[in-house]
Design a protein that fits this description.
There is one protein chain. The protein has about 120 residues and is an alpha+beta fold. It has helices at about 90-105, 110-115, and strands at about 60-65, 70-80, 85-90. The radius of gyration is 31 Å and the shape is rod-shaped.
């Protein structure tokens, strides 16, 4: 099946021309005001750039191998607090799988619970 294009290019479409934006005027060329110095506002250069990057230095990404289920575990850890923020697969699912594997291997229910780190 061929996808349908809903917007067809026109033959006489004008080329897009990239324009450059003029640089803002420096503060030294600003217009003088009649305000008293106590009523004026000056720009402070103390602002930091915003960091919305999820892969910045505040998070650590690790990959582990679960010994009970032989599955890979992907974790996102907060570097400052050392807390696990996200884990795939979740810990409860890993314990359930370890319990099911132990029962499938013929272990008793108490041994399966111990292997899955679960309490009765």
């Amino acid at each position: 099946m061929v996808p349908v294009s809903t917007i067809a290019p026109t033959a006489g479409a004008p080329q897009v021309v990239a324009t450059t934006r003029p640089a803002p005027a420096p503060v030294t060329q600003a217009v003088a005001t009649d305000l008293a110095p106590a009523k004026t506002v000056t720009a402070a250069n103390t602002a930091q750039s915003a960091q919305n990057d999820a892969s910045s230095d505040q998070y650590q990404h690790t990959v582990l191998l679960d010994p009970a289920t032989q599955e890979l575990i992907f974790r996102t850890i907060d570097v400052r607090s050392r807390q696990v923020l996200r884990q795939v697969p979740e810990e409860a699912l890993l314990r359930m799988q370890a319990y099911a594997h132990a029962l499938a291997d013929g272990k008793s229910q108490s041994d399966a619970l111990a292997q899955a780190n679960l309490e009765i």
